[in-house]
Amino acid sequence: MSYAEDLRRVRTREGRSVGSMVLIALGGLFWGYLLLRWLINWEWVPFGTPGEPLVSPETLGLTGGTATAFQSLPQLAEGAYITVLITVLSILLGLVLAVPLSVARVYGRWTKYLSLSFTELIRGTPLIAQLYLLYYGLNLSQFFRGLTQFGPFTVRTPVWAVDLGPLKVQTALWVALIGFTINSAAYQAEYIRSAIESVDPQQLVAARSVGLTQREGILHVVLPQTLRFAIPGWTNELVYLIKYSSLATFITVAELFRRADAVASDTFDYTAMFTVVALVYIGIVITATRLMGYVEDRVALPGLGQTRGRS
Amino acid sequence: MSDPLLRVEDLHKSYGDETVLRGIDFELERGDVEILSGPSGSGKSTLLRCVNRLTEPDSGTIYLDGERVSGAGTDVNELRRQVGMVFQDFNLFLHLTAAENITLGLRRVKGLGKAEARERAMEHLDRVGLADQAGSYPAELSGGQKQRVGIARALAMDPKLMLFDEPTSALDPELVGEVTSVMRELADEGMTMLVVTHEMGFAREAASRMMFLDQGQIVERGPPEQLFQHPEQARTAEFLQRITQLHGGEST
Ligand SMILES: Nc1ncnc2c1ncn2[C@@H]1O[C@H](COP(=O)(O)OP(=O)(O)OP(=O)(O)O)[C@@H](O)[C@H]1O
Ligand SMILES: [Mg+2]
Question: Whose CA is nearest to atom 16 of ligand 1?
């Protein structure tokens, strides 16, 4: 506790440079704008029109590609919401799957092979193929729309899955979430597996020697250390996921990239649109790495889990 | 009860082609402090690990307090609850403070509540002179302090028997004393201990008996002074002489 505070104090004092102040200010503007647009979109604020900028580009004297990009910002913000939603939910649900997968991989007897097969299958096939299989092959989005015929079986979809209330998401989004969760679970399982293997095996022996069962030893001794080792790899996976969530566009999910692509093909302002969308991705990615750095500091303990220098 | 505290019968262990223990038999009475000595690779660590079944013996039987604790139908976790182990490399839980290293077992194994576990942990840290380091992480402790936490962690579980595997071998010479003095107090309080060590000073002063292991067999066993002064086996004499030169026979 005191150690984490010390560490943070040291970091922030060093880190309060002009550069990082500018970055924090930009981050505030970026997320403030996105949040505002989301609220307008959900009609939770008494002003603004979903999809329309608050000020028209003509008023600001913008023309050409710049005007197109400005005009499209509200739509990009909506897309960014979907992108963030996919990323956050998939990485967290993926983590929930990845922990048992990696534990099985290291400690399991026969479950080891199940875990290995799953991981190799997912990592060995293109993500786009996995999404197509779920969306076109299994027709999962039909399932999320209501009653579905799966061969001889009729499945009734739970109401909560059909109607997400104010968030107004497409059913295809569910398919994307399932696809990305499964995919990300496989990659995260690999990161976590190698982190488990970097924990000294004697730690588990010591846990067993005080009478803890193997299960308790893994849960209370190995995993808490593992997750600290896993954070850098996990950050990496998060950064990838933010960007490859754009593949959801191919199963019609209206995420960030698809919005930009749609405007660009309507207006032919490719350069402006893809530059702007790239900046939005960069904004999200930098935020993610900063947050993960913060998490890493928070959970760092003396002698454990610091990958960045402590003077 | 007249049963010995620990009885080991005809213990065998091999790793692949390599036979490490070939028929170990011995008994420890309550309050015995037995030194286990022998050259590197003779099977000392393997024997200790077999006693609390961190390593499963191939054959042989172990009785603790008159009850069979190895073989079919026995609960290995129950055995380990009654036998404390102290490691050469301390093996403290790196993500936990000194106090938490002790409370983990108390809470998960003994089922104590948070406050009670904490209190017990503090008592045991106090006993090894480390009450003021309760909140320190292993990386913030010296080797001697780490090992004292390791001893406290094992003691907190109220074991009937304590196993020590070279508890001072990883320590700088000036830190050895603080650990052996804790062990000596423990011996004085009547704890039954089986200790692998090269600290011959400790052996002479605290041990009731000593066994000499070579190539997986007990070659000789007896009171320390007998083994030091009138060893029956040439191997014992030679080894003890060498060890004494290296690690000093004088008291620490
Ligand atoms: N897990 C294992 N797998 C394979 N061989 C092992 C294992 N543990 C020990 N051995 C072998 O068993 C023999 C005895 O090892 P052990 O660690 O019991 O010796 P020791 O008397 O404690 O030696 P030292 O004084 O070096 O600690 C050694 O030859 C060692 O290589
Ligand atoms: Mg050894």
Answer: B43
